[in-house]
Specification:
Elements (H helix, E strand, L loop, with lengths): L4 H20 L1 H4 L3 H6 L6 H12 L2 H14 L14 H14 L6 H8 L5 H36 L6 H49 L2 H6 L24 H9 L4 H17 L6 H8 L3 H33 L1 H6 L9 H9 L4 H37 L5 H23 L5 H25 L5 H21 L5 H21 L6 H11 L6 H10 L9 H26 L3 H21 L8
Helix pairs in contact: 1-9, 1-17, 4-9, 4-13, 4-14, 4-17, 5-8, 5-14, 6-12, 6-13, 6-14, 6-24, 7-8, 8-9, 8-16, 8-17, 8-18, 8-19, 8-20, 9-14, 9-17, 9-18, 12-19, 12-21, 13-14, 14-16, 14-24, 17-18, 19-20, 19-21, 20-21, 22-23, 24-25
């Protein structure tokens, strides 16, 4: 495709501005590790929230969302539960508060507050979470690498392989991340979020002007525009786009209610486990206090959903109405991940095209920058400083972070070259990485008897079985394999804990009294009360779970409302707005008004 000089100029100016803005923060970022990786814990929650939203607004994820809306219509708002998307609500309601109270630099360092690092079990627990976190970061970076390469191939004028474009964009992102640290990431993320919001509104307006409800009804099966569902999916694409039925069959979502129940079952445990190595975790730890950490997550769930789903809805209906001949021509090998770039290519005018493309590239760079800043934190703080240079100066540690950022960048490129599609990367992350770690990470919060050995063996068992199962049983859906993965990892966790000694009592007392989790902590709670009779245990389990349920409904309605607006489904839009108002009032009274400062 030959871009107009105006569009090319906008993209070039944007890329230069990102590098300059990130690099400008070098002086503030290079003071010490806390400043480099967490911004010195001085950044206001609303900046962190917009940064978090920008990091979640990625090209690969948007491609996937467009694909699932194309195939499943309004019901697609439930499919991201396989991540699970509602883990953001768990963090908003209580987990962000528990995490921020630890006052640490990384998720791996948090482990040292729970498991005694003077024991073999504690060291094993720390080591396995460092490895898991670094692999997670590289996995997410590789996932984004695939999507941005496909996207760039459509638009940029040179006849290069998608991987070449992805390498160039990833390296450009690495430059400003290495220079600016967390300050640079937040500044550029906020700029990128604003640009993406403008791009999303543009796409939604174009789609609403070009497409009518009657045009959508003519190219979609009955029930496509209905958010409600029964036991079966009941979407029949026969005679419209027959190959979509094959995709639904391969996804395994025909029995939609069973899929939703499985997604909820998996999501409950994964969400209660707490965040893995993502930009959300880093921004929680970077918040000024526990209350702001919670508010930051709630606001991020709101500000990312509205513009992103305006874009998803707009791109989907344009593709449905105008690209059906091209998709039919692809036969059984439809590449749904090309819908997003094709829609932009055909419907966005000169000038707006430059803004749109800069916005989409910014989405990738925002996600990439977050992980490029997060990954080195684990290596430098949790390996290099802890085991090799405990007395290293701040200057030395920051320089080491530069080097590790560069290594992580190269590693993500190499792994990205091996991944076939965005969907395959998505399934690997949600099925293997997250499923295998859930049992250990739930127990660490809620059971006093759980120790470092239990954590290590549970993580090891879960990750091994999660990686072996797709090879041994290639036809099994990762979601339906999850109960087996959870069972095996849970048995490893419990056996590892009960067959070894409990953690150091002083460490458990310190952890419980500062974090104040609910769960099975009775023996430790009694010890804490002996020391401090005024101590009050956490009795908020019921309230927290109610707020999670209300928050999840709130999140789904916020996602569905922009889609209903774009397809002009006014009845659904009315009910979604009504639900948003009711759940917002409920969360204000039962969550926000009861947040503690620390």
């Amino acid at each position: 495709m030959n871009l107009h000089i105006v569009d090319v100029s906008i993209i070039v100016v944007y890329l230069i501005a990102m590098v300059i803005a990130g690099s400008y923060m070098n002086r503030r970022a290079s003071k010490d590790l806390d400043a480099y990786f967490l911004g010195g814990k001085t950044i206001p929650w609303y900046y962190l929230s917009l940064s978090n939203a920008g990091g979640m607004f990625d090209v690969s994820g948007t491609m996937w969302l467009v694909y699932i809306m194309f195939v499943y219509g309004m019901k697609s708002v439930f499919i991201p539960w396989i991540w699970p998307l509602f883990n953001q609500i768990f963090m908003m309601v209580y987990l962000a508060i528990w995490l921020r109270r630890s006052n640490v630099l990384t998720g791996a360092e948090w482990i040292t507050t729970r498991f005694d690092q003077d024991t073999t079990g504690g060291k094993l627990a720390h080591s396995v979470i460092v490895i898991f976190s670094i692999v997670s970061v590289i996995g997410f970076l590789s996932y984004g690498f695939v999507g941005v390469g496909k996207f760039a191939k459509i638009f940029l004028p040179w006849d290069w392989h998608p991987h070449v474009y992805a390498i160039i964009i990833t390296l450009l992102t690495g430059i400003y991340v290495v220079n600016g640290g967390m300050f640079g990431v937040v500044v550029t993320d906020v700029m990128q979020y604003v640009l993406m919001t403008v791009a999303s509104v543009i796409i939604a307006i174009i789609a609403m002007n070009q497409v009518t409800p009657e045009m959508i009804a003519a190219v979609t099966p009955k029930g496509w525009d209905n958010i409600l569902f029964g036991w079966k999916l009941d979407l029949d694409w026969s005679g419209i786009l027959d190959s979509v039925n094959d995709r639904i069959a391969s996804d395994g979502y025909q029995l939609f209610t069973i899929f939703i129940m499985m997604a909820l079952f998996k999501g409950l445990f994964v969400s209660m486990a707490g965040p893995v190595a993502t930009q959300s975790l880093q921004r929680i730890l970077a918040s000024r206090n526990a209350k702001e950490a919670a508010i930051m997550n709630g606001f991020a769930a709101l500000v990312v959903s509205v513009p992103r789903y305006l874009m998803v809805g707009g791109l989907t209906v344009l593709a449905l109405v105008f690209f059906r001949p091209q998709l039919i021509a692809m036969g059984a090998d439809i590449d749904f991940e090309l819908i997003l770039p094709l829609a932009i290519q055909n419907f966005v005018p000169v000038g707006l095209m430059g803004i749109m493309l800069a916005g989409m590239f910014s989405a990738h760079m925002s996600t990439t920058s977050s992980f490029l800043n997060l990954g080195p934190a684990y290596f430098v703080n949790d390996i290099y400083k802890k085991y090799f240079r405990p007395n290293a100066s701040d200057k030395t540690l920051v320089r080491a972070s530069y080097i590790v950022s560069a290594v992580v960048t190269v590693a993500s490129i190499l792994f990205g070259l091996m991944i076939e599609s965005v969907d395959s990367a998505t399934q690997w992350i949600v099925s293997a990485l997250w499923a295998g770690s859930a049992a250990s990470n739930v127990l660490k919060w809620h059971w006093w008897r759980f120790n470092g050995y239990g954590y290590f063996y549970g993580m090891l068992a879960g990750l091994l079985i999660a990686l072996i199962m797709p090879v041994a049983f290639p036809d099994i859906n990762g979601l339906y394999a999850y109960p087996y993965i959870l069972l095996i990892s849970g048995l490893g966790s419990v056996a590892g804990a009960l067959l070894t000694k409990p953690e150091n009592e002083k460490l458990l007392i310190k952890f419980y009294s500062s974090v104040r989790p609910w769960g099975f902590w009775e023996p430790i709670k009694n010890k804490v009360k002996e020391i401090d009779p005024s101590f009050e245990e956490n009795k908020n389990f019921g309230r927290d779970m109610l707020n999670v349920a209300v928050g999840t409904v709130w999140q789904v309605a916020i996602m569905a409302a922009p889609l209903a607006l774009v397809i002009k489904n006014w009845d659904t839009l009315f009910w979604m707005i009504l639900i948003i108002i009711a759940t917002t009032v409920a969360l204000k009274k039962n969550w926000y008004d009861k947040l503690e400062l620390n």
